[in-house]
Amino acid sequence: MALLRTREQGTCVARKTFLVRLRISPFYLAAPKSPFSPTSVCSDNRRRPKMFARLSAQRLNEIRTAFRRTPQASRSFSTALNYHIDSPDNNPDLPWEFNDTNKEKVKEILSFYPSNYKQSAVIPLLDLAQQQNGGWLPVSAMNAVAKVIEVAPIRVFEVATFYTMFNRTKVGKYHLLVCGTTPCMIRGSRGIEEAILKHLGVKRNEVTKDGLFSVGEMECMGCCVNAPMMTVADYSNGSEGYKYNYYEDLTPKRAVEIVEAFRKGEKPQRGTQNPGRINCGPEGGNTTLLGEPKAPPCRDLDACSAE
User: Fold this and answer.
1) What b/e readout covers 229-257, taking b as 16+ CB neighbours within 10 angstroms?
2) From CA 223, how far away is CA 121, in angstroms rounded?
3) 168 near 136, Cβ under 8 Å?
4) Which terminal residue of the chain, N or C, has fewer Cβ atoms less than 10 Å from its own Cβ?
5) Smallest Cα–Cα separation from 101: which of 139, 134, 129?
6) Which residues lie below 8 Å from residue 234, measured CB to CB, with a gap of 6+?
């Protein structure tokens, strides 16, 4: 804990900053504004360290209690604060390792990198761990990845907390991500999200009671011509049957139909949901480039030279 002292109109002001490290987890928990009065800490220099230590401990307990009372589902998956608090289903003491099939995949992934650059494999290994674990990354899985690539756990935590593709809380077997970028929003993605949430009876980033579905937001999926769209991360069969498919040209009604198809165990046709389009082509068919395009006149170099 460090003290920073300033003076305002002759009054001693003290502020504190502290970094909380929970067990061996190096996720950082930033403390909110200090709860004590600026004028209450200027009395006795000898008592000040003990007072700050007591207030810091008290504030930490308040923060921990507040987070523990908050339902896990109400926290955002990938956009959660970069902190970790141990829970019965997510703590470093829980055993976790890659299964036999994925151990072979780990070897294959590592073979793509020089032996002295194993850490470069952190993203594909975290992705594999997330697939095996049903769509989310517990601390013990991140520790396992750190052990494989021989780095300190903090190096893995830095990646897992930065990229939104990694979920650090539980998701449904079918994780629905509706695009929230401008083109899709203009084309009605908010209405699609609202229809799905209302149909499932959950809020964004909550998991349905049967554990089948969760709904989140995703940034641009790179197919704006087919807006609005969503992607479905299918964790129903673990890493062996993992799929990540786009569903485009959606309407609220069609989005709900796709959800119900997954509930029945069906696999809806991915891609455009507009029967009048083929892939990214215009509705009704092409109006240009209807025949075989002619080759450029300069393609025959010998003929060009003769001319």
Assistant:
1) bbbbbbbbebbeebeeebbbbbebebbbe
2) 28
3) yes
4) C
5) 129
6) 173, 174, 241, 242, 243, 244, 245, 262
